[in-house]
Amino acid sequence: MENSSKQWRFGNKRLNSASAISVRGVLDLVIGNLSTDDPRPTIPLGNGDPSQFACFRTSTTAEEAIVDAVHSAKYNGYAPTVGVLSARRAIANYLNRDLPYKLSADDIYVTSGCLQAIEVALAAINRPGANILLPRPGFTFYESRAAYEHLQVRHFDLLPDRGWEVDVDAIEDLADDNTVAIVIINPGNPCGSVYSYDHLKMVAETARKLGILVIADEVYGHLTFGSTPFVPMGIFGSIVPVLSLGSISKRWVVPGWRLGWLVTSDPNGILQKSGIVESITGFLNISTDPATFIQGAIPQILENTKDDFFSKVIVTLKEAADKCFDGIREVPCLTCPKKPEGSMFVMVKLNVSLLEDISDDLDFCMKLAKEESVIIVPAGMAFGMKNWLRITFACEISALEDGLRRIKAFHQRHVRKQ
């Protein structure tokens, strides 16, 4: 018989609060509003996963590398805590192409995608009372993970009228003696921005002045198609210690393969002396590993993928970004302050005063999903930018055009009568 007086003592409410601020959680909310009566295909302009579209299929080199690794029977067992040595060497060589100094395998930690690299980085830098500086808007997984780690978050603004650059002056006002790191996402998610050498150097010098390290999220590294080339933050490792995060998910269009890395870009050895390196290894000792056979395939993937594959991806993204930017300008209630130059996203300002029966960005996205079967992300809930939207253009051009037509029709149906 059940004891009604018994007080059960299990459950972890921290997970509920952490997941509530995730993009996945917000997208699930919007997707739940889709109408089952709409015969049209759903247009997914919310989550940036182009792998479902034929025009973004990964390279045959990558596919063959996976097959070769499996057939070799060398990668069926457990991997070392920090990753398979050949994979770490290959990642170091890949990154060294863009750096003024040389990384070694000892600087590389293989992770289960870039998400685990974020988990490792935040756990390694955390201490009682610590805080971290995060961009607004930025990738919300940092906030979710910080909440789980009890790591206090302080936001600095990205400036839309300056191409979403960092408000560097505000950083010094935000930081105090408990600030441990600043996160820089370049190329930018959700903004589609790409930072110049001079701007990144300014951030590095500010971080050095404050005595904090830089976490450089470069998961969209080299996915640039504007006038500004990709510059890795690790170039400034001699100015300030950098934890560089990346993966093959975006450039090779294989997010489901879950192969990423965390790199200590620190030629002065500050991270080793401060104990961060020991903390990274300690976290990985009690965490999971990426699949060993994918690690085994990494040398072939990184060394043998031809430039024409990358060029094709860039050309496809640029065409889609241009199409998205031009289509947004045809919708009066939407304004895009800056054409995207990198990653797979663009931030769009929503003017709700032009619309009837639309209260804010979440209401807009929920009703758009219900009436037009188009999924986009409300940036108020997802990124702390009320009445902004994040749209991905990493899809088939035909699907993107169809989605933009539906958004325009939605606007016309809800436009406020004069």
From TrEMBL:
GO CC terms in record: cytosol
An annotated GO BP: L-tyrosine catabolic process
Modified residues (N6-(pyridoxal phosphate)lysine): K250
Domain Aminotransferase class I/classII large: 42-407
Cofactor(s) listed in the protein's UniProt record: pyridoxal 5'-phosphate
Cross-referenced InterPro entries: Aminotransferase_I/II_large, NHTrfase_class1_PyrdxlP-BS, PyrdxlP-dep_Trfase, PyrdxlP-dep_Trfase_major, PyrdxlP-dep_Trfase_small, TyrNic_aminoTrfase
Pfam families recorded: Aminotran_1_2
Top-rank lineage group of the source organism: Eukaryota
PROSITE patterns, alphabetized: AA_TRANSFER_CLASS_1
Keyword annotations: Pyridoxal phosphate
One of the record's GO molecular function terms: pyridoxal phosphate binding
SUPFAM superfamilies recorded: PLP-dependent transferases
Keyword Transmembrane: no
Entry's family note: Belongs to the class-I pyridoxal-phosphate-dependent aminotransferase family.
Protein name: Aminotransferase class I/classII large domain-containing protein
Species assigned in the record: Gossypium raimondii
